[in-house]
Structures are given as C-alpha cells and as structure tokens.
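Me: I'm a chemist; would you kindly supply a protein sequence with its structure tokens?

Assistant:
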Amino acid sequence: SALALGRDLLGPDAPQRRARVLSALAGTAQGLREGLRHLRQRPAARQALTAMTAMRFCYGALTVTLLMLCRYSWSEPTDSDGGLALLGLAVGLSAAGFFTAAVITPSATARLGTAGWITCCSAGSALLLPPLALSFRPAPMMLAAFVLGVTTQGAKIATDMDAAFPFHSQP
C-alpha cells in the first residue's frame, strides 16, 4: 500500500528539491531588489504604491471588522446564517463600489489626472471612513464598505491606467 512506501521513494531527491527551492528564493530576492531599484528611481510610482498599500490595508481592516461584527455582534450567536447574510450584503456593497469605480475612474482621471484622482480617493476614504465605520452600526458600516470599494478600486484602476497608458490621464 502507499502508506508502506518511504517518503524518499516517491521523489524528487532531497538535493534536487533543495536546489530548486534555493533557486526560487534567489530569483525572488533578485526580483525584489530590481523592484526596489525601480521605485527608488521613480518617485511617482513609489507614491502610488504607498497610497495603494495604505488603502488596501484599510480595506482589509474594514473587511475583518465587518466579518467579526456580522458574525458576533449583529446577529445572534446561534444564527450563523444571519451573520453570513449580513457579510454577504457587505461584500455585495463593496463589489458595487468596485463596479462604480470602474465606471467613474476613466472620466475622473481624465479630468483630475492620476495623482489628483488617487488623492481624491484617499481623501474620501480618510474623511468618510471614520464617521461611518467607527459607529460599529450595520447601516453606516455597510455604506463604508461601498465607499471603500469605490475609493480603493478607483485608486487601483487609476494606477493601472497610468502604468498602461502613461500619457492618457494627464489633466
């Protein structure tokens, strides 16, 4: 039976496996060095990446908070279906925000430029998220999911558009 086979009989040999892992790690380290060099030489790219990192972190924090609130605070502990339904609503609202961002970002970047639109998205998140999310009540938190969906995806689309079409989004 398969359980009677020794681990080393199935391959690959340990030295080959180790060499592949070390090669993959070296390639990853080289890619990271090249990426950091690229960002050091391009302040606009560095700033866009920093903004995206901060916004994605906030989006992740809101998602985890919503998950916990939907499951443990806004529904009965024995009603996991109710908590899941609320979480589904939040995810749906966030997806609606992503769709809204896809619709409005091209015209917003044409009007404001990439940096201007990313700044608007960041400022919108910074101004609207605290009063909406810090109440820890369902309706404002659901609105926060939509708003953060619009702003994080809007900034991401603007960054991608600028990378793909660098002269497209100049105001």
About this structure: The mean pLDDT is 87. Residues 54 and 122 are 9 Å apart (CA to CA). The radius of gyration is 22 Å. The first helix runs from residue 14 to 41.
